[in-house]
Amino acid sequence: MGRFSEKTDTIAAIATAMSDSGIGIIRVSGEDAIGIVDKIYRNAKNEKVLTKYVSHTIHYGFIVREDRTVLDEVMVSVMKAPRSYTAEDTVEINCHGGILMMRKILELVIQSGARIAEPGEFTKRAFLNGRLDLSEAEAVMDIIHAKNEFALQSSVKQLKGSVSDMIKEIRENIISEIAFIEAALDDPEHFDLEAEGYNEVLLKRVEKIEREIRQLIDSAEDGRILKEGIQTVIVGKPNAGKSSLLNVLVGEERAIVTDIAGTTRDILEETISVGGIMFRILDTAGIRSTEDVVEQIGVDRARKAVEEADLVLYVVDSSVPFDENDESIIEMIEGKNTIVLLNKSDLPAAVTNDNIRLVASKITKADSGQNQNNVDTINGNKIIKTSMKDKNGIDFFLQTVKEMFFHGDIVYNDEVYITNARHKEALQGAYDSLLQVHKSIEDRMPEDFYTIDLMSAYEKLGLIIGESVEDDLVSEIFSKFCMGK
């Protein structure tokens, strides 16, 4: 049986995109799925035989209307419980992929006794029927929405249980300690925890679990950035080369590049992958004092974008001296993760080292040096000489980003990353509970204090895999899924 009481009626939906295509799939799942499709399916000999087919077979035939006229030529897959995606009897009708055709077949399925599935209801049933835990079910939607190789591989690993297995192992260790303490409290004649030095043993075990959970929490920021991309804002004065930078990274002329200052009036946004790094890039209006109302709106939007950015790219036209507009930008980016790109390095330089140090002092504590790449380094923040015309400095720029945002090299295959905000929140809650256990042990509190916080950690970890989750949260999670999944 499933985790919660749930409707067991038969559901149906179009499982492929609602657009004209070579093939469309209507998915049907539930106790009566095979019988319902059998009402409208005939094989090549015009026989009604779907209920006789063995599981995991596919059959050629036709979908017929009530008057026995043929609607479409199809291939029908039969998957019997529990060996199906939902762990229920499931039939998938592979038809020609016209929108009208898919809708007509779905109508026949509904008329024959099924109902339209809610968003995510197929995956929800897989969870409720115990075929997937909640973290694996959420990975299904992450696979569908993956925008880069890392997000795809990470989601597939989570679907196969990479996160689930770690959480289950940690929970098993926690519940083992709870059981031992409870047994000792119930039978004090045979268990003297203090005499046996159990507190010291428990402290070491709790510290080990803390480290494991801390490592997962710490992976969440890398996981978020690798999955969603680095939210990056390009700022600078008009005509400094911001749009040229965007075009170099995108690899095409997405932004309009001219010699006229103030060409970009609004924010342009691109999601791109360069050198294994995913960027969500905003190219903003050039920042300068202006009487143009429309241009000023663009400048105001640029300021707001900087506040929300993971990374700011300050593009400086190194052939033009600093002025009051640069001072305004430097004030705006103070305290932000910033890479300064001294663009147009192919032209005679007009930006001085004093200018560079001024920028550095606003980004971080001033302490400059220089490396073999002729790149000024100020406490880990880089000021890189570039030329968008010649594409010089771009490779070093990408290497700099990796050093700023990722703990070591970007590894797709080995490490487990937490990429779900809900999972991170649950892990943090469990970690905080374990810190309380830690403190109780050091303060020599009674052992029943340990079990309260250990159980709290156990339950919070259970939220990740759906072992201690409320029905309302389950419904909210699956409501975000697409139809037919």
In short:
With 485 residues, the protein is an alpha/beta fold. The protein has helices at 33-38, 99-111, 121-128, 134-145, 149-159, 162-186, 198-228, 242-250, 293-308, 324-332, 353-363, 394-405, 421-442, 447-465, 471-479, and strands spanning 11-14, 21-29, 41-43, 57-64, 70-79, 90-97, 115-116, 230-236, 268-274, 277-283, 311-317, 338-343, 368-370, 376-378, 381-385. The two termini are 21 Å apart.
Description:
The protein is an alpha/beta fold. Helix content is 44%, strand content 18%. It has helices at residues 33-38, 99-111, 121-128, 134-145, 149-159, 162-186, 198-228, 242-250, 293-308, 324-332, 353-363, 394-405, 421-442, 447-465, 471-479, and strands at 11-14, 21-29, 41-43, 57-64, 70-79, 90-97, 115-116, 230-236, 268-274, 277-283, 311-317, 338-343, 368-370, 376-378, 381-385. It has an eight-stranded mixed sheet, sandwiched between helices. The protein has a seven-stranded mixed sheet with strand order 3-4-5-6-2-1-7. Helix 5 (149-159) packs across helix 7 and helix 6 packs antiparallel against helix 7. The longest helix has 31 residues, at 198-228. The protein is flat.
Describe the secondary-structure layout:
Blueprint: E1 11-14, E2 21-29, H1 33-38, E3 41-43, E4 57-64, E5 70-79, E6 90-97, H2 99-111, E7 115-116, H3 121-128, H4 134-145, H5 149-159, H6 162-186, H7 198-228, E8 230-236, H8 242-250, E9 268-274, E10 277-283, H9 293-308, E11 311-317, H10 324-332, E12 338-343, H11 353-363, E13 368-370, E14 376-378, E15 381-385, H12 394-405, H13 421-442, H14 447-465, H15 471-479
